[in-house]
């Protein structure tokens, strides 16, 4: 069972003028640029999740692809339907069981789901603005603590997390 979970909200996406389906909203140029910088910062810190999962929505896939590229984890990149909007603790538990052989899992998903999951698992609030990452560490079989949190800007910097 994974002992480390990285939950990250997708980068800034086109809104509110997007004319198509919500599932097809892409990252903006600024959103992609910020995620590139954040992913580069994570790579400099040596972050290497065993698996990178993402919601089937385009903005989450684009974010996950940026992260996986910088973290040299493209072979570990997978879409997962449970990460679509409505993702909850029960879905996360199913993912942890499904990927029980790995140590670290990164999940790219949506708000408000991520904030609700972190609050329920750790009892610590996290404001998931676009590109925010929360690292959860297992402390018991079904309990986690919030190890650290960082915005995309924090991740891009060289400051300690």
Q: Can you put this structure into words, describing what you see?
A:
By secondary structure, the chain is an alpha/beta fold. It has one domain (4-156): Rossmann fold. It contains 5 helices and 6 strands; from the N terminus they run βαβαβαβαββα. It has helices spanning 29-44, 58-70, 89-98, 113-122, 152-156, and strands at residues 4-9, 51-54, 77-79, 104-109, 133-140, 143-150. A 6-stranded mixed β-sheet has the order 3-2-4-1-5-6, sandwiched between helices. Helix 1 runs parallel beside helix 2 (58-70). The protein is globular, with a radius of gyration of 14 Å. The mean pLDDT is 96.
Provide the descriptors you would attach to this structure in a database record.
6 strands, 161 residues, 5 helices, alpha/beta
